[in-house]
Amino acid sequence: MRRITVAFILSTLAALTAACMNGGAVPPAGAFGRSAPSFVAAPYGLPVTSSYSVIHSFAPSEGNTPEASPIVDAENRLYGTTKLGGTSSACGSGCGTIYRLSHDSHGWKETTLWSFDLYHGAYPSSPLVADTLENLYGATDVGGNLGVAYGLFHDVHGLRFRDLHSFQGNRDGAQPRTSLILDRHGNLYGTTIVGGTGGSGGNGTVYELTRSGNKWTETIIHRFFLGKTERTPQALYCSGATARSMERRRTAETLRV
């Protein structure tokens, strides 16, 4: 059976982190760890001094078609998703996986952290995000009811998968296709590309997921309506100024919906 080959470009990691995690500030090199955001986007640029090497070829049970960029933790382990493959038979070519690539003296080792099964989501195509406790978050625009936001959480048994919200369509929105944004308070933000109004209408939503203990609550903070120029949101952008004022703006947007 054909193995899907993926090539990662290895270069020096810049000390960058998501603006929403740190209010737009860039921490100094070596600052990543438990007390600070410890994940960064894996670089795909190829400086003149960098070298290129294949570090893993995915077997079908491990995953297939890794469309999204991986992220890197403080120990230089890579975390990412594959859109297809895995062990579930619910999708024709597999429903996708979440994987980890770690490196030691023997080379790179792949660990499949989760195989999607359609009921809990399928076909992940956007990058993961991580909090300071190294929990992972993402969304799929297929599976559940009409898409799923999910998390992988650390506990005494390792990483545990959990649905944070299954989208219902109509006013709730549907098909959360883009990567999530995580603010400094641990709230998650994302978009759906359709839904937001009654029936089958709507041009998408901006939503927030907040945590209280083990419970996550979804709030729609903006709906894009038919007939307006704004429609089908494909991504969220968060600058440092946006991160610092997110909580204040969230209240204002909720009142406008």
Helix % is: under 10%
Order of helices and strands: EHEEEEEEEEEEEEEEH
Largest β sheet strand count, sense and barrel closure: 5 strands, antiparallel
Give the helix tally: 2
Number of strands: 15
Tally of domains = 1
* Broad shape: globular
Q: Write down the overall mean pLDDT.
A: 77
Structural class: mainly beta
Spatially, the strands of the biggest sheet line up as 2-4-5-6-7
Radius of gyration: 18 Å
Calculate the terminal CA-CA distance, rounded to whole Å. 51 Å
Q: Note poorly predicted spans.
A: 1-37, 239-257
Taken as a percent bin, the fraction of beta residues is 25-35%
Account of the protein in words:
The chain is mainly beta and 257 residues long. The protein has one domain. The protein has two helices and 15 strands. It has helices at 19-22, 240-256, and strands at residues 4-10, 40-41, 51-58, 71-72, 78-82, 97-104, 107-115, 129-130, 136-140, 148-155, 158-166, 181-182, 188-192, 205-212, 215-223. The longest helix has 17 residues, at 240-256. The radius of gyration is 18 Å and the shape is globular. The model is unreliable at 1-37 and 239-257 (pLDDT under 50).
Topology readout:
Elements: E1 4-10, H1 19-22, E2 40-41, E3 51-58, E4 71-72, E5 78-82, E6 97-104, E7 107-115, E8 129-130, E9 136-140, E10 148-155, E11 158-166, E12 181-182, E13 188-192, E14 205-212, E15 215-223, H2 240-256
Concise summary:
This protein is mainly beta and 257 residues long.
Key terms for this structure?
257 residues; mainly beta; 2 helices; 15 strands; 35% strand; disordered N terminus; disordered C terminus
